[in-house]
Design brief:
With about 350 residues, the chain is α/β, with parallel strands linked by helices. About 40% of the residues lie in helices and about 20% in strands. The strands form two sheets. It has a seven-stranded mixed beta sheet with strand order 2-8-7-6-5-3-4, with helices on both faces. The protein starts with 6 loop residues before the first helix and ends with a helix. The protein binds pyridoxal-5'-phosphate.
């Protein structure tokens, strides 16, 4: 029996009460607009790519040279050298690894942001300073830098989840450059839909790690492939010591390399998601009683105010699943909605337009 006040008991109690990420529920046959996956990429395309890739792997062996192929494919896509790329089992796992090795004692984030990051800091006993964004979701640079300078780790989500926006590029560079000696983690999970990436800027600095993923634009959320871009010394440390020897399965490595070798289709879907984002934004902007926030990602944040319950209900009864966030600071009844195919988006728009 564990003693009531033992270290183990206290620690288990502390962990048991922490906020944690709740996985979305699987609703059979639903129009899935809750997790920012890329459904503009057809299931047939991804499946046939996976089948073809599977023919060339030998699952009896540990993955060896396939890792190098993926570094090369990712490096080409991002426009950096292969030695500046590391991989992990989704960017979630990379966050976890960095927190457990280099998280320090204090982290700074702006808020709202990707709640998983905050939850994981708390799990690791890292205290998180949360600097609120302005009501229109811009950043108070001075307040952010002031808090960040007191911390060991700084997390910047760009574009930000759930608000969808990227901050001014020059402003970001100035923030990063004022935070030497701290680990600056820039989460670019949605950058493929945005105007700029800081990946190449990370190479010139010794404390900046850019985190990216194939879960969103590349339609491979189920294959669990995340990656970092950083200076080559950091990546060397990451690959050899921080990350375990075989970070992802041979099958996932082969699928990822295959999709990176055939980028035209992915690029086409990114363009179509961006044009759908514009169309959905324009349509929703015409509705006076809700507020829409401009997005650089593959989702849009909507403040529905007193229409929250009615909209949630109609979406539910039409089998449309979105991320229901409730109140965010002074914004009432917020929902985050993934941009899907034109057909999916039309069904969603129809529900909203009919309700209010
Ligand atoms: C900002 C952000 N970072 C990271 C992730 C995790 O991505 P992955 O599937 O690579 O673990 C997500 C997923 O929703 C996200 O929104």
């Amino acid at each position: 029996m564990r003693k009531k006040n033992s270290w183990l008991n206290n620690e288990i109690n502390r962990i048991a009460w922490l906020d944690h990420y709740t996985k979305p529920e699987k609703v059979e046959g639903a129009i899935k607009l809750d997790s920012n996956e890329n459904f503009a990429l057809s299931k047939d395309f991804v499946t046939s790519m996976a089948f073809e890739a599977a023919k060339h792997v030998d699952l009896r062996e540990y993955p060896l040279d396939q890792v190098g192929d993926l570094y090369a494919g990712l490096a080409k896509y991002v426009g950096v050298r292969a030695e500046c790329v590391g991989i992990g089992s989704g960017s979630d796992q990379i966050i976890e690894l960095l927190l457990s090795t280099l998280g320090g004692r204090h982290a700074t984030v702006f808020s709202p942001t990707f709640s998983y990051f905050i939850n994981r800091c708390e799990l690791h006993g890292i205290k998180v300073y949360q600097v609120p964004l302005e009501p229109n979701f811009t950043l108070d640079k001075k307040a952010f830098v002031k808090a960040a300078k007191k911390s060991d780790l700084v997390y910047i989500c760009s574009p930000n989840n759930p608000t969808g926006n990227q901050f001014d590029r020059q402003e970001m560079i100035e923030i990063i450059d004022s935070l030497e000696n701290r680990l600056v983690l820039i989460d670019e999970a949605y950058v493929d839909f945005a105007d700029y990436s800081l990946s190449r800027d990370a190479l010139k600095r010794n404390n900046v790690v850019v985190l990216r993923t194939l879960s969103k634009a590349f339609g491979l959320a189920g294959a669990r492939i995340g990656y970092i871009v950083s200076n080559k010394e950091f990546v060397k440390l990451f690959r050899s010591i921080i990350q375990s020897p075989y970070p992802i399965s041979t099958l996932s490595l082969a699928i990822a390399s295959a999709i990176l070798a055939d980028m035209e289709h992915v690029k086409h879907t990114i363009r179509s998601v961006k044009s759908e984002r514009e169309r959905v934004f324009t349509r929703l902007s015409k509705i006076d009683s809700i507020k829409i926030f401009r997005s650089d990602a593959n989702f849009i944040l909507i403040e529905t105010g007193k229409n929250y319950q009615a909209i949630s209900k109609i979406l539910h009864s039409n089998g449309i699943v979105v991320k229901l966030l409730g109140n965010i600071a002074n914004h009432k009844g917020c929902m985050r909605v993934t941009i899907g195919t034109q057909e999916m988006n039309d069904k969603y728009l129809k529900c909203i337009e009919q309700t209010i």
